[in-house]
């Protein structure tokens, strides 16, 4: 038996291959927000990662073609919100191009540093952007956590196989 036995049919690297591989990877769902020149901006992200405990830092990816990118690129502070399984509609709204992301029924208010902070989330932080790393057609944003709240009720929202899901017991 060889090491590649049972691996199926391999394909050359492509954007479609990468998307199909990561559809099989369950990821937590976050919404990233910032204050833009013409008002608040935000987008749904599944690329959120913890980077460092000391100082507390996180990272997320954003496409340079995303409507939120110009505001994220220009800002010093962002909001990071961990969504609960009850927030599938909110995740879809912030993922949809052209949506009124901050109109009703989205509950939000201006937080520290003018960052839009969403209501009813499992957890949120306000972060100071400390770096931005080019990564193909995306940028990896590094941000230091300044303050936040991790006491929201509920269970996390996940993204898997192109759909928002809750945890199963």
Describe this structure in words.
- By secondary structure, this protein is mostly beta strands.
- The chain has one domain: Electron Transport, Fmn-binding Protein, Chain A (Pnp Oxidase, Chain A, Roll), CATH 2.30.110.
- 14% of the residues lie in helices and 44% in strands.
- The protein has three helices and twelve strands.
- It has helices at residues 15-23, 69-74, 88-95; strands at residues 27-28, 30-36, 39-45, 49-53, 56-63, 77-82, 108-110, 116-118, 123-135, 138-149, 157-160, 163-166.
- It has a seven-stranded antiparallel sheet. The chain has a three-stranded antiparallel sheet with strand order 1-11-12, with helices on one face. Strands 7-8 form a two-stranded antiparallel sheet.
- Strand 7 and strand 8 (116-118) form a beta hairpin.
- The longest helix has 9 residues, at 15-23.
- The model has no long low-confidence stretch (mean pLDDT 94).
Layout of helices and strands:
Layout: H1 15-23, E1 27-28, E2 30-36, E3 39-45, E4 49-53, E5 56-63, H2 69-74, E6 77-82, H3 88-95, E7 108-110, E8 116-118, E9 123-135, E10 138-149, E11 157-160, E12 163-166
Antiparallel strand pairs: 1-11, 2-3, 2-6, 4-5, 5-10, 6-9, 7-8, 9-10, 11-12
**CATH architecture label:** Roll
Spatial ordering of strands, largest sheet: 3-2-6-9-10-5-4
> What's the β-strand tally?
12
Strand content: 35-45%
Largest sheet: 7 strands, antiparallel
Find the CATH superfamily: Electron Transport, Fmn-binding Protein, Chain A
CATH topology: Pnp Oxidase, Chain A
């Amino acid at each position: 038996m060889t090491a590649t036995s049972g691996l199926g049919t391999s394909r050359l690297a492509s954007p479609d291959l990468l998307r199909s591989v990561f559809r099989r990877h369950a990821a937590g769902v976050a919404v990233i927000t910032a204050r833009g020149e013409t008002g608040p901006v935000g987008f749904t992200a599944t690329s959120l990662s913890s980077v460092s405990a000391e100082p507390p830092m996180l990272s997320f990816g954003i496409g340079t073609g995303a409507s939120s990118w110009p505001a994220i690129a220009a800002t010093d502070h962002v909001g990071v919100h961990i969504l609960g399984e009850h927030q599938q509609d909110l995740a879809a709204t912030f993922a949809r191009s052209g949506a009124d992301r901050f109109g009703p029924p989205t509950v939000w208010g201006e937080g520290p540093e003018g960052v839009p902070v969403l209501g009813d989330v499992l957890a949120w932080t306000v972060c100071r952007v400390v770096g931005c790393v080019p990564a193909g057609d995306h940028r990896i944003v590094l941000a230091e956590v300044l303050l936040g709240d991790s006491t929201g009720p509920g269970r996390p929202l996940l993204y898997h196989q192109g759909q928002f899901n809750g945890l199963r017991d």
